[in-house]
Amino acid sequence: MIEVKELKKSFGALEVLKGVTFGVDKGEVVVVLGPSGSGKSTVLRCLNLLEDYEGGEIRIDGAVIGYRTNANGQRVACHEAEKAKLREQVGMVFQSFNLFPHRTALDNVMMGPLRVRGAARKEARTLALELLGKVGLADKADEYPIRLSGGQQQRVAIARSLAMQPKVMLFDEVTSALDPELVGEVLRVIRQLAQEGMTMVIVTHEIPFARDVSDRVLFVDGGVIVEQGPPSKVIADPSSDRLKLFLRRYQGDYLVA
Amino acid sequence: MDYAAQTAILLKGLFPKLLEGFTVTLRVGLVSMALALVLSVLLLGPRLSKNRLIRLPTEAYIELMRNTPLLLQIYMIYFGLPLLGFFPSEFVCGVVGIALQHAAFLVEILRGGIESISQRQWEAARAIGMRRLAAVRYVILPQTFLRVLGPLGNQLIIIVKDTSLVSAIGVMELTMVGKVSIERSAVSIEIFAAIAVFYLVLTSVLGGALRIAERHTAARF
Amino acid sequence: MLNTLLANLPYLLKGAVVTLWLSLIVVTFGTLLGVIVGLCANVGGRLVQALVTTYVFVLRGIPVLVVMLLGYYAFPALGFRANAYLAVGVAQVIYIGAFVAEIVRSAVLSVPAGQIAAAKSLGMLRIGILRHVVLPQAARIAVPPLLNNSLTAIKQTSYVSVVGAWELTYAAREIVERTLAAFQIFLGVMAIYFLICYPLSLLARWCEKRLLVAH
User: Fold this and answer.
1) Does the pLDDT value for residue A48 go beyond 80?
2) How many CB atoms lie within 10 A of CB A2?
3) Beta-carbon separation of B75 and C70 below 8 A
4) For C184-191, what is the mean pLDDT?
5) What's the pLDDT score for residue C213?
6) B216 inside 8 A of chain A by CB
7) Interval A235-253 mean pLDDT
8) Which structural domain range is residue B180 located in?
9) What is chain A's mean pLDDT, rounded?
């Protein structure tokens, strides 16, 4: 479903992605691990075109996203309108939740169907209530984000993305900003989605969770994929030294840099 | 008859006229406010544009309005438009003058609000497939207004006070009623004191409403 | 195209001088009055505070034009013979004073409480704290709004023309009513006001930036 070939991305003079290649099948859950600055978030943000990419290509369902080739064979960036259309299919949940503070939880979830899809209010409302129920927050529908805990806000954010009924869901370190006791409720929702067959690409630091939920793990460091494979191999028995070093931290050696 | 009784009778007689003037003040105020707000939202885009050709004239306009008195602008419209063949009423001249001046201040207030909104809100809106216009309309602009409710409301109250200036071109609002009535009676301070009370009531009510609105929306942020 | 404007420029410039004088006097005395009243509110008891609050509330709730008209008719009504300038000048000073008082009062209040606590724990007395810790910081906070307020005051001197006192705007209107060259004259006068006000505007913004950084 998703094919990434030799993805290259620079921020000014800094080359963050130096040729990333991987694929994601329908229904697969891929976890991306890596130290900070490795480019893992950037990969995600290229997948839903929040960032443009300079080199390589990304295909979703066979079609190249983000660019068109014009008559002269040159690459031309897509208009914002086309990118927006793509984002209806590729949902993203952020580390800082980014709920709309001026609307209730229910309004937040309804925002996509109502204002992007143009659905009727009643229909949008029903769908929104259903999704809030699915993430366990039906009773908080009329609360404003400021009154919700971090974990609750993040679950509303997930419901908001799901309301667009995307083909793929991207999760960008969605538990990193949460207090530890709130992490579980969010991971539970993500796991449920995985079990229901949603195609997902997850950037996370939660190693046990990654081992449990993912079909495949990618380890990104210095802008390239250093190792990839099933979790049983990559996490339990890493081949590369860099990955071994990275994982040591999660195995109790908290002084690892 | 003693002073108090005399004054009371006089003011009672004047009251209908004062009330009429008050309604005109309200009308001028409301229309000016609405026009100024609409103008300010329309100017917000150009003000923030990265294109210098669009942004600089807007900035120049704002600077001009900030550094010249409202009275002059009202005069210019009132005396100038007939020269161009337009003959709008005094009401229209006054309203347009006030709106043009205050739109400039409102744009700056809105700009402050919009710049304080995190980039992440834009990202969240785009992430669910919103285009620029939808994001601005449903996510950015509502938050902007809610954030600058205080300064915005204060500016609107200033607009209400500035309506008194249109008396200079003959609009029969509250202050004008006072000026006209002076000629007919010996009591002058009392009339303007009464007028002052009218304004005070108006601005107090508006100020109170503003504070209630602020408290209400603070609950969301 | 600018004939009428140029022909009447001397007359207008005389008006500009009057405007400048008026502005200077009003801003100086108004600010002085406001600072005194504002500080009284900060150090005074409940009664003083109530009086100041009322003063500020009333003056800020009515248009400056009405205050000027009150002043204009107050003098003769009370038996004094005063010229128009004195009357509207006093009215404006009282008006500006209210705004300055509020600026000063809230500037003093917005000095962080921690500053006062720190000063106290060094053994400073109330007067000393006021003089060395609170006022310097309050002054810093108050300068940008005071500058903006002065800007407003200068623009407001144009309103005295409505009451009948002669200054730049009055002169402009006279000329336009006579020559009908509305755009020329009014745009020219706007330019004059702009020249007077813009530097102050820039100063206010520069101060805002400088003083924000220090905090």
Assistant:
1) yes
2) 21
3) no
4) 91
5) 61
6) no
7) 78
8) 3-218
9) 88
Residue A155 in tokens: 């679950």
Range 1-60 of B in CB contact (< 8 A) with A: none
What per-residue confidence (pLDDT) applies to A12? 86
Binned at pLDDT 50, 70 and 90, residue A81 comes out as confident
B60 CB-near residues (< 8 Å, 6+ apart): none
Fold of C3-214: MetI-like fold (1.10.3720)
Q: Judge whether residue C121 has pLDDT over 60.
A: yes
Domain residue spans of chain C: 3-214
- Whole-model pTM? 0.82
CATH of A2-251, one of 3.30.470.10, 3.40.50.300, 3.90.180.10, 3.40.50.720: 3.40.50.300
To the nearest 5 percent, what fractions of chain C are helix, strand and coil? 90, 0, 10
Number of structural domains chain B divides into: 1
Residues of C in contact with B189 (CB under 8 A): 70, 73-74, 77
The Cα–Cα gap between C163 and B182 comes to 13
- Strands of A12-166, DSSP E: 14-24, 29-33, 55-60, 63-64, 67-69, 75-77, 90-93
**Interface probe with C: pick from B7, B59, B63, B67, most Cβ of C within 10 Å:** B67
Mean pLDDT, residues C7-12 taken together: 87
The residue ranges of every structural domain in chain A are 2-251
SS3 A75: strand
Average pLDDT of the residues of chain B: 90
- Nearest Cα neighbor of B99 from B73, B81, B127, B125 is B73
CATH classification at residue B110: 1.10.3720.10
B116-133 average pLDDT score:
90
Residue with token string 């009504």: C77
Q: Are A51 and A45 in contact (CB under 8 A)?
A: yes
Given this model, what pLDDT does residue A206 score?
Answer: 85
What's the CA gap between A227 and A238, in Å, rounded?
8
The pLDDT, as a whole number, for residue C215 is 46
Query: ipTM > 0.95?
Result: no
- B133 contact A CB<8A: no
